[in-house]
Design brief:
The structure is a single chain. By secondary structure, this protein is of the alpha/beta class. It folds into two domains: 22-158 and 331-402, Periplasmic binding protein-like II (D-Maltodextrin-Binding Protein, domain 2), CATH 3.40.190.10; 168-291 and 312-328 and 405-451, D-Maltodextrin-Binding Protein, domain 2. The protein is built from 16 helices and twelve strands. It has helices at 34-50, 64-73, 88-93, 101-119, 134-140, 166-171, 183-193, 244-260, 262-269, 296-303, 344-353, 357-367, 380-383, 389-396, 410-426, 431-457; strands at 24-30, 54-60, 80-84, 153-165, 195-196, 206-208, 232-233, 238-239, 289-293, 309-312, 328-336, 401-402. Strands 1, 2, 3, 4, 9, 10, 11 and 12 form an eight-stranded mixed beta sheet that branches. Strands 5-6 form a two-stranded antiparallel ribbon. Strand 1, helix 1 (34-50) and strand 2 form a beta-alpha-beta unit. The longest helix has 27 residues, at 431-457. It starts with 23 loop residues before the first strand and ends with a helix.
């Protein structure tokens, strides 16, 4: 493969089949293995079998972003590359990926005719903005400082909401079809769902927690958004960690160990099983509700098909509540074409194939995620492993869906929030002091990144 000389270890969902003679071979680097890799391999197989000119070879690797940057800088890139939407600022500013508008202008009409003849597609060229949920399209072509250029296309997208155990909610005397809408309601919901050992006394150890911010603990940077906060002002290009809304979010996080007792929460969480198992805390009955993605449907399908999953948009502060415009994280995986790829025309055709209705829904079902397109086909929700995928689809289409900040210093930003969660949880400093510390650190990181870019090309980060 392209970068074997660099010592990269690559592998696929299954052994790669040799390409038939006479085909243009495309090397496609991705980050998915397991169920997710197999779902993408099915799309690759369908494309390979649908025509006799191009053959796509799927390779999975980690860490894909670092290896991709090395291969592109060395002039030996793959033809296609799977990234995350938060990777786009760094890759686009480094000139490592190709904007797709020129390719669409050169080859779009031809590919549209080909697809119409080959598959019977009748909804026009696949890369039209109106085919996508509006927030999803913005992940592909970020406005403002991103210039609105189309840097990649969404392979899959994911949203986060409140997931909960419907059976536990019923047993606690609440209506599982009336989940909490505000932070205040969530606090009460969590209180009623929390159970204790030793005869049920509140003085005893916690047997099940109604809600806990650190399960699964993958989005430590997120909590201010549910109070109306944001972490980055894209138009001005500045860090906004220490706004009042963000401070309120982390004061709320800090209130849970104060309310339930740090020692008891630590004791409870020490018994949590691993994510990809029947002992995952929600499935095992140790946690009654959590912030989570639609992909938890794959766990239920694999480990406990009798689990009664509930889902709703994550509750927000009453001051920003609007039932028609839920607030929730929207993130995506993107397929991009690296700068200097060996076969740009063929790579662009496969990229367009992944955006057909059939392809996007195959991946969404295989990954247990929402659909990126504005409409879904008949039967999509019935075939989906998450019985509440309608909730996650609605969040993905909300104008208040938010993504990870579009800044080249995002990896450091996320790392800062991960680093401060322990001291915040333990009450070592106030939430305000901790968030203000994140602001100061990230101001320095962004200033350094701006200086590096200014030295390179006179721009900013």
């Amino acid at each position: 493969m392209a970068a074997a000389g660099l010592g990269f270890v690559v592998f696929g969902p299954r052994a790669a089949r040799a390409a038939p003679a006479g085909r243009v071979v495309l090397n496609y680097w991705e980050k998915w293995t397991g169920q997710e890799g197999s779902a993408m391999q099915r799309v690759v197989n369908a494309f390979n079998q649908s025509q006799d000119r191009i053959w796509v070879q799927y390779f999975s690797m980690s860490p894909i972003d670092q290896k991709a940057m090395i291969s592109i800088a060395g002039g030996d890139p793959p033809d296609l590359l799977g990234l995350w939407n938060f990777s786009i600022p760094a890759f686009s500013q480094a000139g490592a990926i190709e904007p797709l508008e020129e390719m669409a202008s050169l080859w779009g009409a031809e590919i549209e005719r080909t697809f119409a003849e080959r598959y019977g597609d009748d909804d026009g060229f696949v890369l039209r903005a109106e085919r996508y949920k509006a927030p999803v399209w913005k992940l592909q072509a970020p406005p403002g400082r991103g210039g609105g250029r189309l840097w990649g296309v969404v392979n899959t997208c994911n949203t986060l909401g409140l997931v909960y155990d419907r059976r536990a909610v019923r047993e606690a005397g609440m209506d599982p079809d009336a989940p909490p809408r505000t932070i205040e309601e969530l606090d009460e919901f969590a209180e009623r769902l929390t159970t204790f050992r030793e005869g049920g006394s509140r003085a005893g150890e916690i047997d099940r927690i109604g809600f806990i911010h650190r399960e699964p603990g993958w989005w430590n940077w997120i909590w201010g958004h549910f109070f109306g906060g944001e972490l980055f002002d894209r138009d001005r290009g500045v860090i906004t960690a220490d706004t009042p809304a963000n401070v309120r979010g982390y004061e709320w996080v800090q209130s849970y160990p104060e309310r339930y007792g740090l020692g008891r929460l630590v004791s409870l969480s020490s018994g949590f099983g691993t994510y990809n198992s029947a002992q995952q805390p929600l499935l095992a009955g140790k946690v009654a509700s959590a912030l989570h993605g639609a992909f938890i449907g794959n766990l239920i399908r694999t480990f406990d098909q009798n689990f009664e999953l509930g889902a709703a948009p994550f509750p927000v502060d009453a001051s920003v509540y609007d039932p028609e415009r839920p607030i929730g994280l929207l993130e995506s995986d993107l397929l991009v074409i690296p700068r200097g790829c060996p076969h740009p025309r063929e790579a662009f055709e496969f990229l367009c194939f992944t955006q057909r209705q059939w392809s996007t829904e195959q991946l969404a079902i295989g990954h247990a995620k929402p659909a990126p397109l504005a409409r879904v086909s008949a039967g999509f929700e019935a075939a989906h492993p998450n019985p509440r995928i309608d909730v996650f689809n609605r969040i993905a289409g909300s104008e208040r869906a938010f993504g990870k900040p579009e800044t080249v210093v995002w990896p450091q930003y996320e790392g800062e929030f991960n680093a401060v969660m322990d001291p915040l949880w333990k009450g070592e400093r106030s939430a305000r002091a901790i968030v203000e510390g994140v602001q100061r650190t990230m101001d320095r990181h962004l200033s350094a990144a701006n200086a590096r870019r200014a030295r390179r090309d006179g721009g900013d980060a």
